[in-house]
Every structure is written in structure tokens, then in C-alpha cells.
Write a structure and sequence with these properties.
By secondary structure, the chain is mostly helical. The chain is built from 3 helices and no strands.
Length: 62
């Protein structure tokens, strides 16, 4: 499952709607975060939990 697919699923769970371009940008951010997280432990999170905690929850709160 791609980061975009996970992001869209998590956004649905929080009943959040974002423009497609914004979802693409956030998915690219998740791609980069996951890539760098393999080299340097940036967050200690991965997969859906990373997307939920570091992207979707801040969007929901903000």
C-alpha cells in the first residue's frame, strides 16, 4: 500500500477532506520521512502509525 493510499484511508477515518494536490504533497513528505527514517531514526514510527501521528493528527487539530 502506498503512502498516498494510507494517507487517504487515515483522512477518511478522521473525516477530513483535502484537495488532491495537498494529499500528493503530504504523501511525498511521508515518502521522504520514511526514506530518511531508515538511515537516521527521525521518529521511531513507520507505516500507518507514522502517517496518522505525524501528518493526519496535526491536520485534524490545526
Amino acid at each position: 500500500m502506498s503512502h498516498l493510499e494510507v494517507l487517504e484511508s487515515e483522512l477518511r477515518m478522521f473525516q477530513l477532506e483535502l484537495p488532491f494536490q495537498q494529499k500528493l504533497a503530504l504523501a511525498r513528505y511521508c515518502d521522504e520521512l520514511a526514506r530518511w527514517n531508515e538511515k537516521v531514526n527521525l521518529s521511531g514510527l513507520g507505516g500507518a502509525s507514522m502517517i496518522r501521528r505525524l501528518v493526519v493528527e496535526p491536520v485534524w487539530v490545526g
